[in-house]
């Protein structure tokens, strides 16, 4: 079911859903909330997937999970579907969580069967499900039945290098559970996010699976993304680390040429993100949340290496968002002293 002649700007079908193009935002734990997804959508992403959300926490109606992590902004849907990623290894809990997520407004669900983190695998979820294919199929079937939505599953190629259990599981998930698409990250779980993804393996799956394959892994630069899309025949690509602080990657893939943003645009985008974080989390939590995001943007400010480091450290050290704003102002003015004063 590979899309050999497709272009990234072409629409495609995910079950009954029409996805307007083939560039997506990948699920990113602790990051992919509504405003990060909305940012990707503002720059053209055809679909965005949430950070992973615990099916148990939803089932037990954890307030922060249900109100914060499942929050969908109405504008997110203006340019394509919103998918919520769930993780868990208990089919009945997954059925209940999937129904709740559907009721919260998700257009599609994605199931995490690729996370290598011990905290998740210890519970039998994430990549541990690669070793439990019958259970994995039962979990996916429960998600499909519970939600009534198109369900995708995000998989690794296997748990250990050289293994291809992910491909065998992909076939079963589609044939036996009714999964609408497979997102494949063709690295083994053991290597986490390191090393070269095996695009040949992704091409093999795309060529033989009776459902769309979405490619994840190693997709950072425009040219390499275009090459990987062509090489694998995947139906869509999913940007992860390459999209952090770089929503321009979406527009450059969907437009004719790559345009690097000016410093003012980077600062404006950072300010947009800060304002959204404050709206979502309140000023105190937003101040802390933003600390992980500053390095993503600092590298795009076009500063000398030393000034970039000073700016990044000053932003992360700032105790209030007012201080952050002053630093950004100084950066636009090209005033080095403010960041350096705070960096010492
Ligand atoms: C900080 C971080 C958080 C991630 N969180 C998730 C997650 O919640 N669910 C998931 O399926 N994959 C998660 N991933 C994996 C990414 O979706 C993606 O598959 C991986 O980063 C490979 O793509 P890349 O090499 O282009 O970054 C995460 C990756 C990173 C770096």
What does this 3D model show about the protein?
The model has no long low-confidence stretch (mean pLDDT about 95). The protein is an alpha/beta fold. α4 packs parallel to α6, α11 packs across α13 and α12 crosses α14. α9 links the parallel β9 and β10. The strands form two sheets. The protein has an eight-stranded parallel beta barrel with strand order 3-4-5-6-7-8-9-10, surrounded by seven helices. The protein has two domains: about 240 residues, Aldolase class I (TIM Barrel, Alpha-Beta Barrel); about 80 residues, no CATH class. The site of flavin mononucleotide has 20 residues, from β4.
Task: Throw out a few tags for this protein.
TIM Barrel; binds flavin mononucleotide; 344 residues; eight-stranded parallel β-barrel
CATH 4th-level superfamily of the largest domain: Aldolase class I
In N-to-C order, the SSE pattern is EEEHEHHEHEHHEHEHEHEHHHHH
Poorly predicted sequence stretches spanning 5 or more consecutive residues: none
- What is the residue-averaged pLDDT? 95
Termini separation: 56 Å
Structural class by sheet pairing and helices: alpha/beta
Q: Percent of residues in helical segments?
A: 40-55%
Spatially, the strands of the biggest sheet line up as 3-4-5-6-7-8-9-10
Write down the overall geometry: globular
State the CATH topology of the largest domain.
TIM Barrel
**Count of helical segments?**
14
Proportion of strand residues: 5-15%
Q: How many structural domains can be distinguished in the coordinates?
A: 2
């Amino acid at each position: 079911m590979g899309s050999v002649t497709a272009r990234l700007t072409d629409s495609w079908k995910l079950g009954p859903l029409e996805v307007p193009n083939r560039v997506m935002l990948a699920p990113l734990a602790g990051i992919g909330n509504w405003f990060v997804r909305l940012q990707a959508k503002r720059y053209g992403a055809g679909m965005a997937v949430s950070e992973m959300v615990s099916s148990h926490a939803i089932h037990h109606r954890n307030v922060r999970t249900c109100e914060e992590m499942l929050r969908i902004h109405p504008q997110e849907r203006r340019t394509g579907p919103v998918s919520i990623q769930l993780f868990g290894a208990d089919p009945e809990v997954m059925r209940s969580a999937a129904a709740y997520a559907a009721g919260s407004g998700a257009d599609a669900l994605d199931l995490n069967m690729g996370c290598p983190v011990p905290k998740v695998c210890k519970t039998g979820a994430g990549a541990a499900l690669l070793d439990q294919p019958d259970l994995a199929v039962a979990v996916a079937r429960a998600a499909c039945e519970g939600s009534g939505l198109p369900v995708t599953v995000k998989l690794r190629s296997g748990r250990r290098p050289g293994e291809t259990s992910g491909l065998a599981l992909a076939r079963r998930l589609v044939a036996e559970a009714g999964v609408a698409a497979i997102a494949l990250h063709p690295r083994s779980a053991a290597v986490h996010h390191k090393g070269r993804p095996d695009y040949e393996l992704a091409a093999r799956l795309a060529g033989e699976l009776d459902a769309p394959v979405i490619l994840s892994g190693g997709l950072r630069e425009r040219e390499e993304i275009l090459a990987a899309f062509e090489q694998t025949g995947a139906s869509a690509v999913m940007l992860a680390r390459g999209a952090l602080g770089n929503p321009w990657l979406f527009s450059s893939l969907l437009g004719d040429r790559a345009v690097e943003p000016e410093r003012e645009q980077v600062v404006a985008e950072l300010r947009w993100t800060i304002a959204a974080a404050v709206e979502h989390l309140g000023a105190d939590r937003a101040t802390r949340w933003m600390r992980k995001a500053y390095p993503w943007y600092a590298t795009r400010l076009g500063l000398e290496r030393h000034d970039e480091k000073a700016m990044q450290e000053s932003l992360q050290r700032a105790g209030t968002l007012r201080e952050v704003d002053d630093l950004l102002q100084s950066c636009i003015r090209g005033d080095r002293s403010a960041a350096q004063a705070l960096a010492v």
